[in-house]
Structure of Bifunctional deaminase-reductase domain protein:
Amino acid sequence: MRSWVCISTPNGTTSWGTIMTATYTFDVFSSLDGFGAAGGDWTGYWGKQGPELLDHRLDLYREEQRMVFGANTFRAFTQMLAPDSGIDEVRDPWVTRMTTMPATVVSTTLREPLDWPDATVVSGDAVDVVARLKKESDVPLRSHGSLAMNRALMGAGLVDLVQVTLFPVITGRTGLGPIFAGAADFDLELVSQRTLDRHIQELVYRPTLHP
């Protein structure tokens, strides 16, 4: 990602130049009505997953990236990944691959060592942490879930891509985690789209704060 900056030279003059920053992708699963999860008898992926989705997810996570999590999502992941959780979806290959990737966890309550092979806890405001990561990271950044954190990052202009995997369900009665509740307003530029297993839509957008 290329950003314009004002550069001061040794002789006191200034000029405009560019720096490369790591691309940050907010990766989220959603029902048609905008919920990130559901209660009741819904299972993982709302029971709509198929081989194309799972293969595509593994391809996405094969790329070298750094994961970024908020504390609540990280706790939820580690609980689901526990051997006695009984949740089959956490054994999917893309999830296994994700757990081997380096991760930054933004938290003021968690302490190292974490139950994750290569995770670092960074305290402080998520906006400051991610702004610094975007400047320093040699690989793209990706966050799965972490809704409140990513809403704040979108509002600060730090999210380059919003990748929504849209499942063919409406969960008006049992929906949990309204993804964009309380978020700012955004215009969205469609970057790519694909259909998986004939009924799942992946939509990738570039967000811009609406004036």
In short: The helical segments are 51-62, 71-81, 93-98, 126-136, 147-155. The chain has one domain: 22-209.
